[in-house]
C-alpha cells in the first residue's frame, strides 16, 4: 500500500471538537429516546417562543445578509481571487454549479415544487383562496422562500469561510471567520464551541432530513408499486441511501460527489423538460415572466412583512420564519461545502454565481412544476389539493400521474430524489469531517465513512423511536443563535477585507 493510500485511513482529528461532538450526539439521541414526550414538549415550547418573539430578528437578519452580498458584488473587493492571484478553479463551471445546487436545495426543491404552491393557493396569507389571484400570489410567495434571500445567506457564509481559509491560510471551519474579531483566541475554547455547535447541528439536520426523506421516497414507491409504508421499508431505504453515500465518500470529492451531482442534474433536466413539454407549455412560459414580476413587485412587502397587524395570525411563523430558521441552521454545512469547492474564483464571480444561477434554475423549476399543478387545479379538474392535504409526499406523483408516461416519470423522480439525498448526505459527511478534523480540507476517508454511517444510524434510531419530529423542531431552534453568527460573519468579513486591502 502506498503512502497516499495508507494516509486515507489514518485519523486526522481535532480531539476536543471530534470527541465532544460525537459524545453530544450519542447523549442527545439516547436522552431524546428515553424522554421523547418531554423533549417534544420542550422543543415545541422553545420553537413557539422563538417564532413569537424573535420573528422580527429573522426577518431583519435575512435582509441584512442580502444587502451585504449586493454591496460586496459591486465593491472594490470584487476582483479579489479566493486563494490568491495565481489560484485557478479546481472544478469546471458546470461541475461547480451542479455541486452547490445539489448540496444547497436540490432535494427540498423537488419535494416542495408542487406542494408549496398548492398549499398557498388553497390557504393564502391574504385574499380569497383557490382563485387565479391566489395562484399568482402562491407562486410569488414560493419564489420568495426559495429565492435571493436564501442564496444570499449561503453566499455570505461561504464567502467568509473561503476567504479566511484560502487567503489567510486559516482552517476551513466556522471559527476562522472570526479571526478579525477574536484573533488567536479562535484556536481556544470559544473556537471549539463554535465548531462543535456547527458539527452537531449539521449532523442532526442531515439525520432528520434523511429520515423524513426516507418517508417521502417510501410514499413515492408505495404510490408506484404499492409496497406499503412503515418503519421497515424506511429503514431499508435509509440503509441503502447511507451505503450509496458512503461509497461516494470513499471515491472522494471529484470522483464521487461531483460526478453524482452532475448525473443528477442531467436526470433532473430530463424530468424538467418532460413536464414542460407534456404540460401546458405556452402557459408556463407566460407564467415564468409573470411569476418573476409578482416576486419583484412583492419583494419589499414580503421581505419586511412581520404579520404585526394580525396578532392571531400564524401563517408567517409556519412558513417564512420556519424557512429562514431552517436555511440559517443549515448555513454551516452548505457554507463550508460551497467554500471547499470554490477556490480560484474572484469574489464577484463567486457571489454572482452562488446568488443568481441557482436562483434562476430554482425559479424555472418552481414555475414548470408549480404552475403545471396550479393550471390543473384551475382549469383541468385536477385533485392535487386533496392529495397535498391527505399526504404531502404524494403531491409530485399525483401531478406526474396526470401526464403521459406516468410510471416512467414517477420512477425517474424517485431516482432524482434518492440521488439528491445521497449527494446531500456525502456532502454533509465531508463538511462534518472537515470541522472535526480542525479544518483540514482533505480529511482521511475513514473519518468520512464514520460520519456518513453515523448519519444513517442516528436517522434510523430516531425513526424507530419516533423522535424525528422532535429533532426537526430542535434543529430549527439552532437557527436563532446562527442568525447572529451569520451577522457577525458579515461584519468580520468586511473588517478582514478592509485590513487586507
Summarize the structure in words:
The chain has 501 residues and is mostly helical. Helices cover 79% and strands 0% of the residues. It has helices spanning 3-7, 15-34, 36-74, 93-104, 106-122, 132-146, 148-166, 179-182, 189-225, 231-251, 253-278, 281-297, 299-304, 315-340, 347-380, 384-390, 395-401, 406-436, 445-465, 468-477, 479-500. The radius of gyration is 22 Å and the shape is globular.
Fill in the keyword field for this structure.
501 residues, mainly alpha, globular
Task: Provide the gyration radius in Å.
Answer: 22 Å
Number of H- or I-type helical stretches = 21
**Beta-strand proportion:** under 5%
Largest sheet: none
Helix content: over 70%
Number of strands: 0
Q: Spans of 5+ residues with little confidence (pLDDT < 50)?
A: 1-9
Q: What's the rounded overall pLDDT mean?
A: 85
Oligomer: single chain
How far is the N terminus from the C terminus? 46 Å
> Which structural class is indicated by helix and strand composition?
mainly alpha
The secondary-structure element order is HHHHHHHHHHHHHHHHHHHHH
Shape verdict: globular
Amino acid at each position: 500500500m502506498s503512502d497516499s493510500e495508507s494516509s486515507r485511513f489514518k485519523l486526522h482529528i481535532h480531539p476536543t471538537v471530534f470527541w465532544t461532538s460525537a459524545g453530544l450526539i450519542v447523549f442527545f439521541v439516547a436522552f431524546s429516546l428515553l424522554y421523547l414526550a418531554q423533549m417534544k414538549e420542550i422543543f415545541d415550547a422553545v420553537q413557539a417562543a422563538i417564532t413569537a418573539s424573535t420573528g422580527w430578528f429573522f426577518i431583519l437578519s435575512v435582509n441584512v445578509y442580502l444587502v451585504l452580498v449586493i454591496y460586496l458584488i459591486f465593491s472594490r473587493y470584487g476582483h479579489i481571487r479566493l486563494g490568491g492571484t495565481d489560484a485557478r478553479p479546481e472544478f469546471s463551471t458546470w461541475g461547480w454549479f451542479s455541486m452547490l445546487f445539489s448540496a444547497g436545495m436540490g432535494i427540498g426543491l423537488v419535494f416542495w415544487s408542487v406542494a408549496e404552491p398548492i398549499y398557498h393557493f388553497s390557504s393564502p396569507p391574504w385574499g380569497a383562496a383557490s382563485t387565479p389571484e391566489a395562484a399568482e400570489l402562491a407562486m410569488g410567495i414560493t419564489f420568495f422562500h426559495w429565492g435571493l434571500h436564501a442564496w444570499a445567506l449561503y453566499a455570505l457564509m461561504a464567502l467568509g469561510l473561503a476567504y479566511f481559509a484560502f487567503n489567510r491560510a486559516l482552517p476551513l471551519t466556522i471559527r476562522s471567520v472570526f479571526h478579525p474579531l477574536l484573533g488567536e483566541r479562535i484556536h481556544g475554547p470559544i473556537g471549539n464551541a463554535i465548531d462543535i455547535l456547527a458539527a452537531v447541528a449539521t449532523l442532526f439536520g442531515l439525520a432528520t432530513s434523511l429520515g423524513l426523506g426516507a418517508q417521502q421516497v417510501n410514499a413515492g414507491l408505495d404510490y408506484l408499486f404499492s409496497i406499503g409504508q412503515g418503519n421497515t421499508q424506511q429503514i431499508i431505504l435509509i440503509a441503502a441511501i447511507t451505503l450509496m453515500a458512503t461509497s461516494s465518500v470513499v471515491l472522494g470529492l471529484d470522483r464521487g460527489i461531483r460526478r453524482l451531482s452532475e448525473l443528477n442534474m442531467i436526470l433532473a433536466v430530463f424530468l424538467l423538460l418532460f413536464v414542460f413539454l407534456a404540460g401546458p407549455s405556452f402557459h408556463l412560459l407566460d407564467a415564468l415572466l409573470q411569476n418573476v414580476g409578482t416576486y419583484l413587485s412583492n419583494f419589499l412587502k414580503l421581505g419586511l412583512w412581520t404579520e404585526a397587524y394580525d396578532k392571531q395570525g400564524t401563517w408567517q411563523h409556519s412558513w417564512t420564519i420556519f424557512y429562514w430558521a431552517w436555511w440559517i441552521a443549515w448555513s454551516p454545512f452548505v457554507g463550508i461545502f460551497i467554500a471547499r469547492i470554490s477556490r480560484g474564483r474572484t469574489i464577484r464571480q463567486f457571489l454572482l454565481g452562488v446568488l443568481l444561477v441557482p436562483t434562476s434554475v430554482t425559479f424555472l423549476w418552481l414555475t414548470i412544476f408549480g404552475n403545471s399543478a396550479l393550471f390543473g387545479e384551475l382549469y383541468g379538474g385536477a385533485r392535487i389539493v386533496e392529495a397535498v392535504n391527505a399526504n404531502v409526499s404524494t403531491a409530485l406523483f399525483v401531478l406526474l400521474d396526470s401526464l403521459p408516461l406516468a410510471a416512467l416519470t414517477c420512477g425517474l423522480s424517485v431516482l432524482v430524489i434518492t440521488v439528491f439525498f445521497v449527494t446531500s448526505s456525502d456532502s454533509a459527511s465531508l463538511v462534518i469531517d472537515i470541522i472535526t478534523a480542525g479544518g483540514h480540507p482533505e480529511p482521511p476517508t475513514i473519518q468520512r465513512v464514520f460520519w456518513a454511517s453515523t448519519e444513517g444510524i442516528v436517522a434510523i434510531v430516531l425513526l424507530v423511536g419516533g423522535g424525528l419530529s422532535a429533532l426537526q423542531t430542535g434543529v430549527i431552534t439552532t437557527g436563532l443563535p446562527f442568525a447572529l453568527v451569520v451577522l457577525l460573519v458579515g461584519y468580520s468579513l468586511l473588517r478582514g477585507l478592509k485590513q487586507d486591502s
